[in-house]
Request: fold
Amino acid sequence: MAVLRMNKIRICAVHKDRKKILEFLQRQGCVEVRDAAAEDGVFARTDTSSVCATLGKASETARACSEIIDRYCQTKRSITGGLKGRARASVRQSDDFCARRNDVLNAAQHVVSLECGIREAKSELIRLDAQEEALSPWMELPVPQAFGGTKKTAAFVGSLVGEYTPDGLLARLSAAGPELDAVHAQIVSSSKVQTCFYLVVLKKDAQKAEEALKSLGFAAPSNPSRHMPRAKKELLIKQKRETLELIGRAELEIRSYEAMREDFRFLEDHMKMREEKYEVIERLLQSKHAFILTGYIPEKDSEGLRRAITDRFDCAVVIESAQDDADAPVMLKNAAFTEPAESVLESYSMPGKGELDPTPVMSVFYYIMFGLMFSDAGYGLIMAAACGALLLIYRDMPHNMKKSLRLFFWCGVSTIFWGVVFSSYFGDAVNAFSKTFMGREVGIPPLWFAPLDSPMKLLVFCLGIGVTHLIAAYVMKACNYVKNGQYIDIVYDVAFPIAILFSLLVLLMGSEMFFNMAGFRLTLSAIAAKVCLGSAAVCMAGIVLTGGRESKSWFKRILKGLYALYNVLAGWLGDILSYSRLLALGLATGVIASVINALGTMTGRGVPGLLVFIVVFLLGHALNFGINVLGAYVHSNRLEYVEFFGKFYEGGSRKFSPYGIHTKYYMIQEEDCHV
Amino acid sequence: MSEMGIVLAVLGMALAALLPGIGSAKGVGIAGQAAAAVVTDDPAKFSKVLVLQLLPGTQGIYGLLIAFVTMLNIGLLGGSSDISLMKGLCYFAACLPMAIVGWLSALHQARASIASINLVAKKPEQFGKAMIFPAMVETYAILALLISLLAVMNVANLNI
Reply:
């Protein structure tokens, strides 16, 4: 139930077995390969980055191909697809695939290029459409757009902004170029936006006509055609038809590859696995005939792997403890109940060197605090039932997903518990419903008390949970000190602060203020009060004297000690008050739920009232559920990270990430035996 | 003057719903822009940035909560709404922590959220830590909620 012991492993074998050994290790997935020691005259490392890049590209092609096939074959994607996990495949299947992989890769590349063709054809279609659109005002033009004139004449085909009549156009033209004569202008089409026309002048006047037109803002058609407009239009229509046919053929061809979908998926996985293998090869030391692999392996897998590998291959396996290795990665092992909280720990940091795994303690508090903040039996039941059902149905789901669902399952169970304790079932839904629709208010009495009746009592309870949580943190700190043999530090850094807290708490619990809040108090005799005061004073003095013990000069030591005392006192106050969020968020869930129920019952009795109640109930509680599950999750994390871990936990190690099969669709498994 | 009591109480209630609501709307809005930008690059980060976007949204809910509890206590939803001027002032004052802290903390939390969204865009594996930064700001909204809630619920017991 803790950080697993790590071993170092070295495997030395001959070259001809390299592929088989590496593939075997990949399937076992229990060795993290690290860079081998320095090169020498005999052993050297090889650069495989170009191979890795090629393999990465191939797996990317396969992925793109699968995506294209999914798109064109209209595959229904189920929401729960991600929960199903990977299918199992045997080593033989994998080896058989090797023989075909080039064919499959070629097919995948072909599919990708077909899709690329379709995309190009589609943009071509848009271009053709634009051309046809631009041609439409020119349909009545009796000459091609590119027509430049005859032997004696020059022709201008183009448009002016605005609407013109033939006379109006000639008048503008003669105003712009008074010396022009013998001008023939014919309007092809005219609209408010533009007037398209062509103009014929004598060749000698061409220059002047051009200048006159330019001054009017004449625009020649872009990309003028040598065909007559009608012929050009037919040409465009034909090109469009051909492009559409091309697209149709390509789509049909892509669909014909649907049967190979599984092959493409296998290809993606296969290439990913090979890429990972070549990344490992780069880390090996290799000579002409042999290679050495260096890495880490959890102690529990060491002997099994050694046996399995020496039975199969001629090789030397050396295993030694990695206890003193500062670089050794960390792997956690916890019981089924506490394991889900590992993911919360991981997103903070893995335990550093010489630190205990705080997961067991952390997980219990996580469940308790999450439940207190969510605190509704109805919501808890929905959450626990949904997670439980998914876990039962999809047994092969990815491990991380399984962990998260189990985390929320236990949080849901805790939520049910607190909901029953404080009598919250979708807020006061039972009371509201029975009062409105049955005419008689029925309620489920709380196991302990109703928070809205005595919120101060709940506040004291929540702060009490906080005190327990913080003391657990100091106990963890003490355990770390014990593990590292720093016994005297336990007195300085753990016993003093806890003793201060207890003395002050006892004094507080004897006070009038505490009685008003919690409804009970300790009756302290005068001597007991003096003992408490005395012990608090002694411990405070202790902290002042020892808080800065790493400094040599006494002056510095006392200053640091005073600062440490301030930190302890301010820390206790701030940290404990921080747990008031348990109350605030817990009340928020219940009160918002009651608001929803009140809104739902506003329309009163009868069928319409019932319908309104159902709609408001479903929508409102879904919203409240979402918001509060988010709040409970975020603030449980915060209380663990800031208040709990802040007391003792540093973390900083690397997570053990073994060389293995990190695929999407298939899991390759050994047929004969498992290590 | 006794009708001034209920006026002040309703004013406080309205502020508790108004200011944190405005703050949260603005906060979730600007955080949403940052989140959308991240999803343009990588749609797979949607669920992570959505959580971060929603974090400044809770103040609005807390404000609603205080407003509603106040309404229940001053008899706006049925019951007697006969409140003395002094009690009305007390309700008004009790609503203020939630109203003001909720409003401002939502805006500041949104900035922390945006920074965390950018963090997740670059290092998605640091989501756990990214979530804590905005949650730190929320602490103060929760403390204000707590004080407002306890105060509103206990004004009725005052003998003024």
Q: What stands out?
A: The first helix of chain B runs from residue 2 to 41. Chain B has one domain: 2-155. The mean pLDDT of chain B is 90.
